[in-house]
Amino acid sequence: MSENRFQPPASDVTEPVSPIITDYELAKRDQRAAGFILDALIAYPLMILLKILPGALGVFNILDIDIDLFRIPDLAAWLTTLFFYYLICEGLWYKTIGKLVTSTRVIHVSRKDPSFSQIFARTLIRYIPLEFVTYLGSDKRPSGWHDRWSDTRVINVT
Q1: Low-confidence residues of the chain: pLDDT under 70
Q2: Which of the 8 DSSP states describes residue 21?
């Protein structure tokens, strides 16, 4: 009997495999705290710059919009800046500048690179009130809710 000419060709449809981290050590509490402080010190000037720059460049005058970004509450501007800072940095490089300095990065619990949706979830979960309290246990290598609920961890890369 001859081969079925209507049968679709066989093809490999497996997803590309991201590099697997075979051995890792979770970041310590002091590394996580130092990374957070550094990220805050970097994000605050970014917030100020984002509030000043459009007005200084005359963007609103060109568009004939009467808006003053300084009327936006600082808390809203701060939370928005932090959200996009974490989302962009961790989404593209799996680390922020604070993590770069402290030699840490984000991974998925399967030891692969996390997906963008996991980074997005991780970033959103940070905004749960008192989420930072989840680090106050006795564990020297803590995982907060934003780590556990997004199936990610912060590890040492040294």
Answers
A1: 1-2, 13-22, 54-72, 138
A2: -
**Are the CB atoms for 117 and 84 separated by under 8 Å?**
no
The structure tokens listed for 6 are 């209507």
CA 1 to chain centre: 58
Q: H helices then E strands: how many in the chain?
A: 6, 2
The pLDDT, as a whole number, for residue 66 is: 58
Those residues with Cβ within 8 angstroms of residue 34's Cβ, 6 or more apart along the chain or in another chain: 98, 101, 102
Q: Which residues are within 8 A (CB) of 77 and not within 5 positions of it... i.e. 6 or more apart?
A: 47, 50, 51, 69
Provide the residue ranges of all domains of the chain, joining segments of one domain with +.
29-156
Question: Crossing angle for the helix pair 116-125 and 74-93, nearest 10 degrees?
Answer: 150
For residue 74, CA distances in Å to 38, 83, 126, 149 come to 19, 14, 18, 28
Query: For 55-89, how does the pLDDT look when each residue is reduced to its tens digit (9 = 90+)?
Result: 666 655 555 555 555 566 777 888 889 999 999 99
